Amino acid sequence: MARFHVRESNGQLLNGAAAFVALWLVMPGWLWLGRMGRFPGVTPLLELAYQMFLRLRPLLQRWMRGT
């Protein structure tokens, strides 16, 4: 549960921002975001944002539960 994972149809396991980009590429309505994520340098920036989110996630979960 520490990171988001996706297994592609070829068996390759992706995690983090790369997994989100792969998921967006096959989800209706999200293809545009997946295509943007494939531009050079974008996935590493998404990964940094994802890592920051992972640090904040426990606080957000507590806040959403009201504790």
Give a nutshell description of this structure.
The protein is mainly alpha-helical and 67 residues long. It is built from three helices and two strands, in the order ββααα. It has one domain.
Describe this structure in words.
The chain is mainly alpha-helical and 67 residues long. It has one domain. It contains 3 helices and 2 strands. It has a two-stranded antiparallel ribbon. Helix 1 runs antiparallel to helix 2. The radius of gyration is 14 Å and the shape is globular. The model has no long low-confidence stretch (mean pLDDT 94).
Major sheet attributes: 2 strands, antiparallel
Number of domains: 1
Percent helix: 55-70%
Report strand order across the widest sheet. Answer: 1-2
Poorly predicted regions are none
Please tally the β strands and state the result: 2
Q: Shape from CA axes?
A: globular
SSE ordering: EEHHH
Structural class: mainly alpha
Mean pLDDT over the full residue set: 94
Give the helices and strands, then pairings.
Blueprint: E1 5-7, E2 13-15, H1 17-26, H2 31-37, H3 42-65
Antiparallel strand pairs: 1-2
Which key phrases capture this entry?
67 residues, mainly alpha, two-stranded antiparallel sheet, 3 helices, 61% helix, 9% strand
